[in-house]
Amino acid sequence: MNIAERQSIKEQFSESEWSDILKGPNCAALYVMSASPSGALGLRAETRAVNDILVNLVRNNPDSALLGALALDYHYAPEAAAPAQEAVSHVAEVSGAALAGVRQALLLVDSRASSQDAQEYRQLLLQTAIGAAKASAQGGILGLGGVQVDSDERRALRELEELLATSAE
């Protein structure tokens, strides 16, 4: 798939809408990360895991027009994928904003992308969330012990899976 084909899908969305779609994978990861916040080292590992997933998307040169366009933007403007850094006073606000970001991105993709592109986008959202959840052990001391994915993260992943399955119907 060439660059022109990848860029043509972006024309189906306004700049603001495309920005919401770009931020969707990070919002999915942030939703899971906010379910069981890690310390500074854990946050770094989770962020790196999400970045690695997006970098791999670029390297794998997807056939999907939507994922191909996302890959181009992640490569040339990676800062565009970061969720807005708004002032929040509580983890619940982060969680709610992240889930709202996922819902908005899904609504846009479901309304204008092909069903195959929409399904592949859902898989990308889930992959980034799972990657974030598995990146840092929870409940240990200095990275030792603990569990890879704790019950709060499993709950958040189940909620995301349900949302992704519901929006696919």
How much strand? under 5%
Q: What structural category arises from helix and sheet content?
A: mainly alpha
Globally, the shape reads globular
What is the total number of structural domains?
1
Computed Rg: 16 Å
Binned, the helix content reads over 70%
Q: What number is the mean pLDDT?
A: 83
Helix-strand sequence: HHHHHHH
Can you count the beta strands?
Answer: 0
| Unreliable residue stretches | none
For the largest beta-sheet, the strand count, sense and barrel status come to: none
Distance between the termini: 27 Å
Tally of helical runs? 7
Overview in brief:
Helix content is 72%, strand content 0%.
What features would you describe in this structure?
There is one protein chain. With 169 residues, the protein is mostly helical. It has one domain (3-168). It has helices spanning 3-10, 15-35, 40-59, 65-76, 91-112, 115-134, 151-168. Helix 5 packs antiparallel against helix 6.
Can you tag this structure with a few keywords?
169 residues; mainly alpha; 7 helices; 72% helix
Layout of secondary structure:
Layout lengths: L2 H8 L4 H21 L4 H20 L5 H12 L14 H22 L2 H20 L16 H18 L1
